[in-house]
Amino acid sequence: MRKLIILRGNSGSGKSTIAKKLQNRFGANTMLISQDVIRRDVLKVKDGKNTPALPLMKELLIYGHNHSNIVILEGIMYADWYKPLFDLSVQLYGSEIYAYYFDLPFEETLKRHQTKPNCHEFGEEAMRGWWREKDFSDVLNEVSITSERNIDDIVEDIYNLVLF
Q1: Rounded to an integer, what distance in angstroms lies between the CA atom of residue 32 and that of residue 51?
Q2: Over the stretch 70-107, which tens digit does the pLDDT of each residue have?
Q3: What does the H/E/C string look like for the chain?
Q4: Neighbours of 127 (CB within 10 A)
Q5: Is the pTM of this model over 0.70?
């Protein structure tokens, strides 16, 4: 059975780190779709309500559904801007969606950002501009991940839930 893991939340919350660890943990035939990679590296476009990244992410989601056992979709993905992607997710995967929202305080995301290799690319001012408090999706049944949880425990919990 095909399964989809969605990891959303503000910049610096740990989504990409956990997504990569999950992809490694699940191993072969696990597809990772990263919003930042598609938007910044593949297309070199800005985010926004009608970002050109959205149609490509939808196509990649369809491809992943047709060819991969597990797809991991991660990024900030504001709930309103990416609603069409979430609607498609439900159409493709039904009840086999494991959605998580990283609900961390701004100060914690800033602290985590400062440990990243790309921390020099943007700082507190940009992060405040992107910040959305509790941007839960009305399409996805998201589980909240808080700052009290450590990375390894989050990966292990998601892995075990999806696997069994």
Answers
A1: 20
A2: 999 999 999 999 999 999 999 999 999 999 999 987 77
A3: CCEEEEEEECCCCCHHHHHHHHHHHHCCCEEEEEHHHHHHHHCCCCCCCCCCHHHHHHHHHHHHHHHCCEEEEEECCCCCCCHHHHHHHHHHHCCCEEEEEECCCHHHHHHHHCCCCCCCCCCHHHHHHHCCCCCCCCCCCCEEECCCCCHHHHHHHHHHHHHC
A4: 16
A5: yes
